[in-house]
Amino acid sequence: MYIRLLLVILYSFLAISGSYADGGTEDLVNRVTKNGELFKKNLDQAYLEIQPLLLKAQQSKDSLSELILIERKCRYFYAKNQYDSLNEASLSLLDQSIRYNNNYFQAMGHMFQAEGFSVNSLYDRAIKSLTLAYNLLSKDKSGDAFIFFAKANILNSFANIYNDNGEPEKAVEKVKEAIGSYNSLKNNDDINQFQYLNYSNLAGLYSQFNIDSAEFYAKKSIDLRPSNVVKDKAMMMNYYVLGKASKLRNENSMAASYYHKAIEASVRSGSSLNLTEIFNNLIDIYEKEGDKDSVLLYVNKLKEMQLNILQSKYNALQKTVISGEPKKTSPVWIISLAVIMSLIIFYLWRKLSGKRQVDESASNEVYNSLIQLLKDNDPGFYFACEQVFP
Protein backbone atom coordinates (compact mmCIF):
# COMPACT_ATOMS: atom_id res chain seq x y z
CA MET A 1 0.00 0.00 0.00
CA TYR A 2 1.13 3.50 -0.76
CA ILE A 3 -1.54 5.78 0.68
CA ARG A 4 -0.58 9.38 1.42
CA LEU A 5 -2.93 11.77 3.16
CA LEU A 6 -4.17 15.12 1.91
CA LEU A 7 -3.02 18.27 3.65
CA VAL A 8 -5.47 20.98 4.66
CA ILE A 9 -4.93 23.99 2.43
CA LEU A 10 -7.32 26.54 3.94
CA TYR A 11 -4.81 28.14 6.25
CA SER A 12 -2.48 29.14 3.42
CA PHE A 13 -5.04 31.70 2.34
CA LEU A 14 -5.79 32.79 5.89
CA ALA A 15 -2.09 33.45 6.40
CA ILE A 16 -2.00 35.65 3.31
CA SER A 17 -4.82 37.81 4.66
CA GLY A 18 -2.72 38.71 7.69
CA SER A 19 -0.62 41.81 8.21
CA TYR A 20 1.99 42.74 5.63
CA ALA A 21 3.83 45.08 7.94
CA ASP A 22 7.15 43.89 6.51
CA GLY A 23 6.72 45.96 3.35
CA GLY A 24 4.77 43.78 0.93
CA THR A 25 3.29 45.73 -1.97
CA GLU A 26 -0.42 45.54 -2.63
CA ASP A 27 0.15 44.25 -6.17
CA LEU A 28 2.41 41.44 -4.98
CA VAL A 29 0.02 40.50 -2.18
CA ASN A 30 -2.84 40.25 -4.68
CA ARG A 31 -0.78 38.12 -7.06
CA VAL A 32 0.28 35.76 -4.27
CA THR A 33 -3.35 35.48 -3.14
CA LYS A 34 -4.56 34.71 -6.67
CA ASN A 35 -1.80 32.14 -7.06
CA GLY A 36 -3.05 30.48 -3.87
CA GLU A 37 -6.56 30.30 -5.28
CA LEU A 38 -5.21 28.78 -8.50
CA PHE A 39 -3.05 26.36 -6.51
CA LYS A 40 -6.16 24.95 -4.90
CA LYS A 41 -7.67 24.25 -8.34
CA ASN A 42 -4.64 23.14 -10.36
CA LEU A 43 -1.18 22.61 -8.91
CA ASP A 44 0.69 22.60 -12.20
CA GLN A 45 -0.65 25.90 -13.48
CA ALA A 46 -0.05 27.59 -10.14
CA TYR A 47 3.47 26.20 -9.83
CA LEU A 48 4.56 27.94 -13.04
CA GLU A 49 3.91 31.27 -11.33
CA ILE A 50 5.62 30.54 -8.03
CA GLN A 51 9.29 31.09 -8.90
CA PRO A 52 8.75 34.51 -10.58
CA LEU A 53 6.62 35.59 -7.62
CA LEU A 54 9.26 34.31 -5.20
CA LEU A 55 11.97 36.36 -6.91
CA LYS A 56 9.73 39.42 -6.76
CA ALA A 57 9.08 38.85 -3.05
CA GLN A 58 12.80 38.57 -2.35
CA GLN A 59 13.54 41.73 -4.33
CA SER A 60 10.78 43.57 -2.47
CA LYS A 61 12.04 42.23 0.88
CA ASP A 62 8.54 40.89 1.51
CA SER A 63 9.38 38.10 3.95
CA LEU A 64 5.80 36.89 4.46
CA SER A 65 5.13 36.44 0.74
CA GLU A 66 8.51 34.73 0.41
CA LEU A 67 7.69 32.21 3.14
CA ILE A 68 4.19 31.58 1.79
CA LEU A 69 5.59 30.82 -1.67
CA ILE A 70 8.36 28.53 -0.42
CA GLU A 71 5.79 26.63 1.64
CA ARG A 72 3.61 26.38 -1.45
CA LYS A 73 6.51 24.80 -3.32
CA CYS A 74 6.75 22.22 -0.53
CA ARG A 75 3.06 21.41 -0.98
CA TYR A 76 3.54 21.01 -4.72
CA PHE A 77 6.46 18.59 -4.39
CA TYR A 78 4.58 16.63 -1.72
CA ALA A 79 1.56 16.24 -4.00
CA LYS A 80 3.84 15.16 -6.87
CA ASN A 81 5.79 12.56 -4.85
CA GLN A 82 8.99 14.52 -5.63
CA TYR A 83 10.76 13.87 -2.35
CA ASP A 84 14.19 15.11 -3.41
CA SER A 85 12.76 18.50 -4.38
CA LEU A 86 10.60 18.45 -1.24
CA ASN A 87 13.72 18.01 0.86
CA GLU A 88 15.41 21.03 -0.74
CA ALA A 89 12.32 23.23 -0.48
CA SER A 90 11.68 22.27 3.16
CA LEU A 91 15.28 23.07 4.07
CA SER A 92 14.90 26.45 2.37
CA LEU A 93 11.66 27.04 4.30
CA LEU A 94 13.39 26.17 7.57
CA ASP A 95 16.35 28.44 6.87
CA GLN A 96 14.25 31.43 5.88
CA SER A 97 11.68 31.00 8.65
CA ILE A 98 14.47 30.91 11.23
CA ARG A 99 15.99 33.99 9.62
CA TYR A 100 12.67 35.84 9.81
CA ASN A 101 11.80 34.39 13.24
CA ASN A 102 8.49 32.92 12.05
CA ASN A 103 7.44 29.91 14.16
CA TYR A 104 4.52 28.97 11.93
CA PHE A 105 6.58 28.47 8.77
CA GLN A 106 9.40 26.91 10.76
CA ALA A 107 6.88 24.31 11.93
CA MET A 108 5.78 23.71 8.35
CA GLY A 109 9.41 23.23 7.33
CA HIS A 110 9.84 20.56 10.00
CA MET A 111 6.59 18.90 8.88
CA PHE A 112 7.69 18.59 5.26
CA GLN A 113 11.12 17.38 6.39
CA ALA A 114 9.31 14.66 8.34
CA GLU A 115 7.48 13.50 5.20
CA GLY A 116 10.81 13.04 3.42
CA PHE A 117 12.24 11.11 6.36
CA SER A 118 9.17 8.88 6.58
CA VAL A 119 9.10 7.70 2.97
CA ASN A 120 12.71 6.58 3.42
CA SER A 121 11.84 4.66 6.61
CA LEU A 122 13.60 7.15 8.92
CA TYR A 123 10.67 7.11 11.32
CA ASP A 124 12.51 8.28 14.45
CA ARG A 125 13.77 11.36 12.66
CA ALA A 126 10.32 11.99 11.23
CA ILE A 127 8.67 11.82 14.67
CA LYS A 128 11.34 14.15 16.07
CA SER A 129 10.68 16.70 13.30
CA LEU A 130 6.92 16.59 13.83
CA THR A 131 7.31 16.95 17.58
CA LEU A 132 9.43 20.06 17.00
CA ALA A 133 6.77 21.37 14.63
CA TYR A 134 3.91 20.82 17.07
CA ASN A 135 5.85 22.41 19.94
CA LEU A 136 6.54 25.50 17.84
CA LEU A 137 2.85 25.89 17.01
CA SER A 138 1.89 25.38 20.65
CA LYS A 139 3.81 28.53 21.54
CA ASP A 140 1.27 30.57 19.59
CA LYS A 141 -1.60 31.58 21.89
CA SER A 142 -3.30 33.89 19.38
CA GLY A 143 -6.12 31.49 18.58
CA ASP A 144 -5.76 32.27 14.87
CA ALA A 145 -7.46 29.81 12.55
CA PHE A 146 -4.35 29.14 10.47
CA ILE A 147 -2.55 27.84 13.58
CA PHE A 148 -5.43 25.44 14.14
CA PHE A 149 -5.22 24.18 10.54
CA ALA A 150 -1.46 23.86 10.84
CA LYS A 151 -1.84 21.64 13.92
CA ALA A 152 -4.37 19.53 12.01
CA ASN A 153 -1.82 19.04 9.25
CA ILE A 154 0.78 17.97 11.80
CA LEU A 155 -1.67 15.31 13.01
CA ASN A 156 -2.21 14.14 9.41
CA SER A 157 1.55 13.99 8.95
CA PHE A 158 1.86 11.86 12.11
CA ALA A 159 -0.78 9.61 10.51
CA ASN A 160 1.34 9.33 7.35
CA ILE A 161 4.32 8.19 9.39
CA TYR A 162 2.35 5.54 11.28
CA ASN A 163 0.91 4.36 7.99
CA ASP A 164 4.34 4.20 6.33
CA ASN A 165 5.50 2.14 9.30
CA GLY A 166 2.71 -0.40 8.77
CA GLU A 167 0.45 0.88 11.57
CA PRO A 168 -2.70 2.14 9.79
CA GLU A 169 -4.80 1.73 12.95
CA LYS A 170 -2.61 4.28 14.77
CA ALA A 171 -2.82 6.51 11.71
CA VAL A 172 -6.61 6.38 11.93
CA GLU A 173 -6.43 7.53 15.57
CA LYS A 174 -4.45 10.63 14.54
CA VAL A 175 -6.92 11.58 11.81
CA LYS A 176 -9.82 11.10 14.22
CA GLU A 177 -7.99 13.40 16.64
CA ALA A 178 -7.91 16.03 13.89
CA ILE A 179 -11.61 15.46 13.15
CA GLY A 180 -12.49 15.93 16.82
CA SER A 181 -10.71 19.28 17.01
CA TYR A 182 -13.18 21.11 14.76
CA ASN A 183 -14.71 23.05 17.69
CA SER A 184 -11.95 25.63 17.25
CA LEU A 185 -13.66 26.69 14.00
CA LYS A 186 -16.62 29.05 14.06
CA ASN A 187 -17.64 29.18 10.40
CA ASN A 188 -19.80 26.25 9.21
CA ASP A 189 -18.35 26.34 5.70
CA ASP A 190 -14.82 26.07 7.12
CA ILE A 191 -15.91 23.18 9.34
CA ASN A 192 -17.50 21.31 6.44
CA GLN A 193 -14.50 21.76 4.16
CA PHE A 194 -12.15 20.73 6.96
CA GLN A 195 -14.13 17.54 7.62
CA TYR A 196 -14.55 16.90 3.88
CA LEU A 197 -10.77 16.47 3.66
CA ASN A 198 -10.45 14.60 6.96
CA TYR A 199 -13.14 12.04 6.10
CA SER A 200 -11.46 11.48 2.74
CA ASN A 201 -8.15 10.82 4.52
CA LEU A 202 -9.89 8.48 6.94
CA ALA A 203 -11.43 6.58 4.02
CA GLY A 204 -7.99 6.15 2.45
CA LEU A 205 -6.52 4.74 5.64
CA TYR A 206 -9.44 2.38 6.31
CA SER A 207 -9.19 1.07 2.73
CA GLN A 208 -6.10 -0.85 3.85
CA PHE A 209 -7.81 -2.96 6.51
CA ASN A 210 -11.57 -2.24 6.75
CA ILE A 211 -13.20 -1.59 3.39
CA ASP A 212 -16.71 -1.16 4.85
CA SER A 213 -15.53 1.73 7.05
CA ALA A 214 -13.55 3.10 4.12
CA GLU A 215 -16.62 3.20 1.90
CA PHE A 216 -18.67 4.78 4.70
CA TYR A 217 -16.22 7.65 5.21
CA ALA A 218 -15.71 8.20 1.48
CA LYS A 219 -19.47 8.70 1.09
CA LYS A 220 -19.52 10.91 4.19
CA SER A 221 -16.78 13.04 2.66
CA ILE A 222 -18.70 13.33 -0.61
CA ASP A 223 -21.79 14.49 1.32
CA LEU A 224 -19.72 17.40 2.67
CA ARG A 225 -18.14 18.31 -0.66
CA PRO A 226 -18.30 22.10 -1.20
CA SER A 227 -20.73 23.11 -3.94
CA ASN A 228 -17.97 24.71 -6.01
CA VAL A 229 -15.82 21.56 -6.01
CA VAL A 230 -16.13 19.10 -8.89
CA LYS A 231 -13.08 16.83 -8.85
CA ASP A 232 -10.21 17.72 -6.54
CA LYS A 233 -7.60 15.80 -4.52
CA ALA A 234 -10.15 14.68 -1.93
CA MET A 235 -12.54 13.40 -4.59
CA MET A 236 -9.63 11.54 -6.15
CA MET A 237 -9.17 9.69 -2.86
CA ASN A 238 -12.91 9.11 -2.49
CA TYR A 239 -13.20 7.67 -6.00
CA TYR A 240 -10.23 5.41 -5.33
CA VAL A 241 -11.87 4.04 -2.17
CA LEU A 242 -15.25 3.51 -3.86
CA GLY A 243 -13.46 1.80 -6.73
CA LYS A 244 -11.66 -0.55 -4.37
CA ALA A 245 -14.89 -1.38 -2.54
CA SER A 246 -16.59 -2.16 -5.87
CA LYS A 247 -13.65 -4.28 -7.01
CA LEU A 248 -13.76 -6.36 -3.83
CA ARG A 249 -17.44 -7.05 -4.59
CA ASN A 250 -16.37 -8.18 -8.08
CA GLU A 251 -18.18 -5.20 -9.61
CA ASN A 252 -15.28 -4.60 -11.96
CA SER A 253 -17.09 -2.33 -14.41
CA MET A 254 -18.19 -0.02 -11.60
CA ALA A 255 -14.72 -0.16 -10.05
CA ALA A 256 -13.05 0.83 -13.33
CA SER A 257 -15.49 3.73 -13.68
CA TYR A 258 -14.54 5.04 -10.22
CA TYR A 259 -10.82 4.62 -10.94
CA HIS A 260 -11.12 6.59 -14.16
CA LYS A 261 -12.93 9.35 -12.27
CA ALA A 262 -10.03 9.35 -9.81
CA ILE A 263 -7.55 9.72 -12.67
CA GLU A 264 -9.59 12.59 -14.10
CA ALA A 265 -9.51 14.28 -10.69
CA SER A 266 -5.75 13.78 -10.65
CA VAL A 267 -5.41 15.49 -14.02
CA ARG A 268 -7.65 18.38 -12.97
CA SER A 269 -5.96 18.99 -9.64
CA GLY A 270 -2.42 18.13 -10.70
CA SER A 271 -1.97 15.77 -7.74
CA SER A 272 -0.19 12.43 -8.17
CA LEU A 273 -0.88 11.13 -4.66
CA ASN A 274 -1.94 7.46 -4.63
CA LEU A 275 -1.96 7.08 -8.43
CA THR A 276 0.18 3.95 -8.21
CA GLU A 277 -2.59 2.19 -6.27
CA ILE A 278 -5.14 3.21 -8.89
CA PHE A 279 -2.97 2.00 -11.78
CA ASN A 280 -2.31 -1.34 -10.05
CA ASN A 281 -6.03 -1.96 -9.57
CA LEU A 282 -6.88 -1.03 -13.16
CA ILE A 283 -4.20 -3.42 -14.41
CA ASP A 284 -5.75 -6.21 -12.36
CA ILE A 285 -9.24 -5.47 -13.70
CA TYR A 286 -8.15 -5.32 -17.34
CA GLU A 287 -6.09 -8.50 -16.99
CA LYS A 288 -9.22 -10.34 -15.81
CA GLU A 289 -11.16 -8.91 -18.75
CA GLY A 290 -8.44 -9.85 -21.23
CA ASP A 291 -8.03 -6.23 -22.38
CA LYS A 292 -4.36 -6.40 -23.38
CA ASP A 293 -4.14 -2.86 -24.75
CA SER A 294 -5.42 -1.31 -21.52
CA VAL A 295 -3.13 -3.53 -19.46
CA LEU A 296 -0.12 -2.37 -21.48
CA LEU A 297 -1.18 1.27 -21.20
CA TYR A 298 -1.41 1.23 -17.40
CA VAL A 299 1.65 -0.97 -16.90
CA ASN A 300 3.69 1.63 -18.78
CA LYS A 301 2.15 4.48 -16.77
CA LEU A 302 2.83 2.61 -13.54
CA LYS A 303 6.38 1.74 -14.54
CA GLU A 304 7.24 5.35 -15.30
CA MET A 305 5.67 6.65 -12.08
CA GLN A 306 7.30 4.07 -9.82
CA LEU A 307 10.73 4.63 -11.29
CA ASN A 308 10.36 8.39 -10.84
CA ILE A 309 9.23 7.96 -7.22
CA LEU A 310 12.04 5.52 -6.46
CA GLN A 311 14.71 7.78 -7.93
CA SER A 312 13.26 10.76 -6.07
CA LYS A 313 13.35 8.81 -2.80
CA TYR A 314 16.99 7.90 -3.34
CA ASN A 315 17.96 11.45 -4.20
CA ALA A 316 16.22 12.60 -1.02
CA LEU A 317 17.94 9.85 0.97
CA GLN A 318 21.35 11.06 -0.17
CA LYS A 319 20.57 14.48 1.27
CA THR A 320 18.67 13.50 4.42
CA VAL A 321 20.70 10.53 5.66
CA ILE A 322 24.10 11.82 4.64
CA SER A 323 23.50 15.32 6.01
CA GLY A 324 22.23 13.86 9.27
CA GLU A 325 24.98 11.26 9.70
CA PRO A 326 28.35 13.06 9.23
CA LYS A 327 30.37 10.08 10.38
CA LYS A 328 29.04 8.04 7.46
CA THR A 329 29.71 10.50 4.68
CA SER A 330 32.86 8.82 3.44
CA PRO A 331 33.31 8.49 -0.33
CA VAL A 332 32.78 4.74 -0.07
CA TRP A 333 29.38 5.25 1.61
CA ILE A 334 28.28 7.79 -0.98
CA ILE A 335 29.45 5.63 -3.88
CA SER A 336 27.63 2.65 -2.37
CA LEU A 337 24.42 4.66 -2.24
CA ALA A 338 24.80 5.60 -5.89
CA VAL A 339 25.48 1.98 -6.81
CA ILE A 340 22.44 0.64 -4.97
CA MET A 341 20.24 3.29 -6.58
CA SER A 342 21.41 2.25 -10.05
CA LEU A 343 21.03 -1.44 -9.27
CA ILE A 344 17.49 -1.19 -7.93
CA ILE A 345 16.31 1.06 -10.76
CA PHE A 346 17.79 -1.36 -13.29
CA TYR A 347 16.29 -4.32 -11.45
CA LEU A 348 12.81 -2.82 -11.36
CA TRP A 349 12.99 -1.77 -14.99
CA ARG A 350 13.98 -5.29 -16.01
CA LYS A 351 11.25 -6.90 -13.89
CA LEU A 352 8.62 -4.47 -15.12
CA SER A 353 9.55 -5.06 -18.74
CA GLY A 354 8.75 -8.73 -18.35
CA LYS A 355 5.74 -8.49 -16.01
CA ARG A 356 2.39 -6.79 -16.31
CA GLN A 357 1.65 -6.44 -12.62
CA VAL A 358 4.04 -4.72 -10.28
CA ASP A 359 4.54 -6.19 -6.85
CA GLU A 360 5.05 -2.86 -5.12
CA SER A 361 5.31 -4.29 -1.61
CA ALA A 362 8.10 -6.63 -2.73
CA SER A 363 10.12 -3.86 -4.35
CA ASN A 364 9.67 -1.68 -1.27
CA GLU A 365 10.78 -4.55 0.96
CA VAL A 366 13.95 -5.00 -1.09
CA TYR A 367 14.53 -1.26 -1.00
CA ASN A 368 14.02 -0.93 2.76
CA SER A 369 16.15 -3.96 3.63
CA LEU A 370 19.11 -2.84 1.58
CA ILE A 371 18.85 0.74 2.77
CA GLN A 372 18.89 -0.42 6.40
CA LEU A 373 22.07 -2.42 5.76
CA LEU A 374 23.62 0.59 4.10
CA LYS A 375 22.59 2.97 6.90
CA ASP A 376 24.06 0.58 9.49
CA ASN A 377 27.29 0.35 7.49
CA ASP A 378 26.74 -3.42 7.58
CA PRO A 379 29.33 -5.45 5.62
CA GLY A 380 26.51 -7.78 4.65
CA PHE A 381 25.24 -5.08 2.32
CA TYR A 382 27.43 -6.25 -0.55
CA PHE A 383 26.44 -9.90 -0.07
CA ALA A 384 22.77 -8.90 -0.02
CA CYS A 385 23.21 -6.97 -3.26
CA GLU A 386 24.69 -10.04 -4.91
CA GLN A 387 21.72 -12.13 -3.77
CA VAL A 388 19.09 -9.62 -4.89
CA PHE A 389 20.79 -8.63 -8.15
CA PRO A 390 22.53 -11.82 -9.40
Number of strands: 0
Measured as a percent range, the helix fraction is over 70%
Shape: globular
Q: Helix and strand succession?
A: HHHHHHHHHHHHHHHHHH
Mean pLDDT: 81
* Structural class estimated from helices and strands: mainly alpha
Q: How many individual helices? A: 18
Question: How widely separated are the two ends?
Answer: 27 Å
Spans of at least 5 consecutive residues with low confidence: 10-23, 325-334, 379-383, 385-390
Query: The biggest beta sheet, please?
Result: none
Give the radius of gyration: 21 Å
Q: Beta-sheet strand percentage?
A: under 5%
Task: Provide a concise account of the structure shown.
Helix content is 77%, strand content 0%. It has 18 helices and no strands.
Walk me through this protein's architecture.
The two termini are 27 Å apart. The protein has a domain at 305-388. 45% of the residues are buried. The model is unreliable at 10-23, 325-334, 379-383 and 385-390 (pLDDT under 50). By secondary structure, it is an all-alpha fold. The chain has helices spanning 10-16, 26-41, 43-59, 63-79, 83-99, 103-119, 123-138, 145-164, 168-179, 188-206, 211-223, 233-248, 252-269, 275-289, 292-324, 331-354, 360-375, 380-388. It contains 18 helices and no strands.
Question: What features would you highlight for this structure?
Answer:
390 residues; 18 helices; mainly alpha; single chain
Topology:
Blueprint: H1 10-16, H2 26-41, H3 43-59, H4 63-79, H5 83-99, H6 103-119, H7 123-138, H8 145-164, H9 168-179, H10 188-206, H11 211-223, H12 233-248, H13 252-269, H14 275-289, H15 292-324, H16 331-354, H17 360-375, H18 380-388
